[in-house]
């Protein structure tokens, strides 16, 4: 059996690529039609064609995407719709799916669940979202929360974050350019300001440590000014936006995340698969994969002192660092595309 799929989404760069590749590589998928505002994956998706709606006007963009979903849904070979970012893109795809009586998937990746569904709009959105045919989530905690909201358990599957491991080779070296690294969007919920505060405290006792901030966003200039005000600019590199994340990861020892809200960030997966040891806040489904004192350190949210203590400890306690790193490396294979492919194959086999 072979068929076509329609994917409706608006993920950035590596997110889109890593979510779509395990789908496109399935031999049952003859073609993947991708409906999104603009093409910005950092790699080519096999067997894929794009229907883009790049308008800056949100309403116009949504209408164009809906028209494209309806156009593609009318194809006999299209068996189902797949969506990440269920709000709004999953809801757009759901209209087309229901018009043609085809199944619809919603993939929750973090902020969409914690911000929208658990937010003030949740009571209106949940009855609609529950009508989808298949849900993927980032971890067990999110799955348990969905069950409390009345989602059917047989419809919910944990979709492992997966990456092309060949792109993130382990780089063993005692000489690393950066002690710590952050990778992600420079937006408020990532709390990079706390990382800078914590790092400034670490520098007082360890003047040779360094920090690399990989990413771009609306807070970039604010963070640069904060680093200047803290007197730590000399020890920090801001890279801005870059596709070549691995070139920075392989130069670092420890990845640091201080987010207030997440699912399970791909940046952590990429860092861990490169051999970095994580320090993170225990938000979203991160504790499903990072076990405190076993393969990383978890610290309290909104606490730069706790973050600084964890960073200092990880830097100076070589025995702890090596123990955690060895356990990190043991989890590496879990994040290969094979695990994600198995999830999709089970759903594809349910198609009539």
Automatic annotation (TrEMBL):
InterPro entries: Glyco_trans_1. Pfam families: Glycos_transf_1. SUPFAM superfamilies: UDP-Glycosyltransferase/glycogen phosphorylase. Residues 168-328 form the Glycosyl transferase family domain. GO terms for molecular function: glycosyltransferase activity. Coiled coil: none annotated. PANTHER family: GLYCOSYLTRANSFERASE. This is Glycosyl transferase family 1 domain-containing protein. It comes from marine sediment metagenome. The lineage of its organism: unclassified sequences, metagenomes, ecological metagenomes.
């Amino acid at each position: 059996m072979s068929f076509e799929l329609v994917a409706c989404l608006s993920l950035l760069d590596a997110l889109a690529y890593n979510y779509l590749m395990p789908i496109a590589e399935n031999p049952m998928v003859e073609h993947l039609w991708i409906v999104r505002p603009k093409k910005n994956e950092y790699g080519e998706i096999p067997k894929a064609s794009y229907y883009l709606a790049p308008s800056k006007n949100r309403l116009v963009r949504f209408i164009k995407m809906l028209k494209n979903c309806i156009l593609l849904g009318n194809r006999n070979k299209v068996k189902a719709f797949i969506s990440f970012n269920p709000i709004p893109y999953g809801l757009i795809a759901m209209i087309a799916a229901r018009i043609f009586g085809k199944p619809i998937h919603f993939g929750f990746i973090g902020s969409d669940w914690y911000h929208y569904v658990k937010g003030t709009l949740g009571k209106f959105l949940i009855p609609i979202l529950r009508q989808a045919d298949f849900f993927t989530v980032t971890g067990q905690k999110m799955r348990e929360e969905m069950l409390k909201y009345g989602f059917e358990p047989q419809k919910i599957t944990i979709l492992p974050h997966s990456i092309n491991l060949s792109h993130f080779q382990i780089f063993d070296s005692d000489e690393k350019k950066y002690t710590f690294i952050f990778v992600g969007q420079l937006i408020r919920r990532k709390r990079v300001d706390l990382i800078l505060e914590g790092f400034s405290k670490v520098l007082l006792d360890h003047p040779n440590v360094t920090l690399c901030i990989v990413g771009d966003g609306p807070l970039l200039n604010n963070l640069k000014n904060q680093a200047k005000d803290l007197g730590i600019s000399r020890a920090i590199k801001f890279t801005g936006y870059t596709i070549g994340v691995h070139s920075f990861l392989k130069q670092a020892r420890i990845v640091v995340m201080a987010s207030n809200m997440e699912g399970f960030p791909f940046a952590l997966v990429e860092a861990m698969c490169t051999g970095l040891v994580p320090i993170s806040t225990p938000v979203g489904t991160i504790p499903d994969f990072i076990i405190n004192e076993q393969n990383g350190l978890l610290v309290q949210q909104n606490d730069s002192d706790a973050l600084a203590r964890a960073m200092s400890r990880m830097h100076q306690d070589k025995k702890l660092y090596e123990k955690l790193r060895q356990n990190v490396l043991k989890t590496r294979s879990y994040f290969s595309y094979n695990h994600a492919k198995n999830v999709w194959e089970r759903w594809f086999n349910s198609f009539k």
